[in-house]
Design brief:
The protein is an alpha+beta fold. The protein is built from three helices and eight strands; from the N terminus they run E-H-E-E-E-H-E-H-E-E-E. It has a single domain, classed as 2,3-Dihydroxybiphenyl 1,2-Dioxygenase, domain 1 (Roll).
Length: about 140
Amino acid sequence: MLSIHHYNVAVHDLDEAVADYTSRFGMAIIGERAHNALGNFDYQALGFGDQVITRLITPSSEESPVARLMKERSNALNPHGEGFYMVAFDCDDVAAFCDQVEATGGRVQRAPSGTNAWVHPTSSHFVFMEVVQRTPSA
């Protein structure tokens, strides 16, 4: 069973986006700004209380997948190509989920740790998905 873990939004200016999300939507900054070396982007988690709802992400280099996607979708109304990037789901059994996706012809990239995986957009009607091992409730 899947449930929403968080979603990522690609932004051009992380400081400006954080200010917008906190003032406009009432979200709080959760944790410190960080860097994701695998995806080559910087991010800030936001949400309500201690529950992360979204991560605003900005590419760290022009070679990152985020930068490439933003460049591809830039247009007159969205000159920086900002917008939805990825949705992450909590999952009870990441390995079983990946096996199911692959058994039906889908593509996944499994993390070496086994605690998460990514579903290729061509396998999910062009939604980039991350699947995260659900942590047991306390």
